[in-house]
Amino acid sequence: MSNEHYEVAIKDKMTLSIEEAAAYSGIGMNKLREMTKSPLCDFVLYVGKKTLIKRIPFEEYINRATEVGFAILTLRQYIEKRACLW
User: Fold this and answer.
1) Which residues are 52's β-sheet partners?
2) Do 35 and 22 contact (CB within 8 A), yes or no?
3) Nearest alpha-carbon partner for 55 in 23, 13, 85
4) For all residues of the chain together, what is the average pLDDT?
5) Residues 73, 58 contacting (CB under 8 angstroms)
6) Beta strand residue intervals within the chain, DSSP E
7) Does residue 57 register a pLDDT over 60?
8) Packing angle of the helix pair 18-25, 55-64 (nearest 10 deg)
């Protein structure tokens, strides 16, 4: 195995670190960490203790969001919201 380091543009990455996602979106790292802890967050990927942001679902979230963050929803609201995404 080689120790070569490859530079990949953010637009070509499948996942982003919290730092990369913050730079990419303009959303603060603390807010992103808070958002990824929500059970409604569908753009988070945990690899061990590392938190990664799935870029495409994150972009889709940003495109459809009117406000950053997750509101507390009832189970029924959650199911209805998820049904709209399918």
Assistant:
1) 17, 45
2) no
3) 13
4) 83
5) no
6) 15-17, 44-47, 50-54
7) yes
8) 40
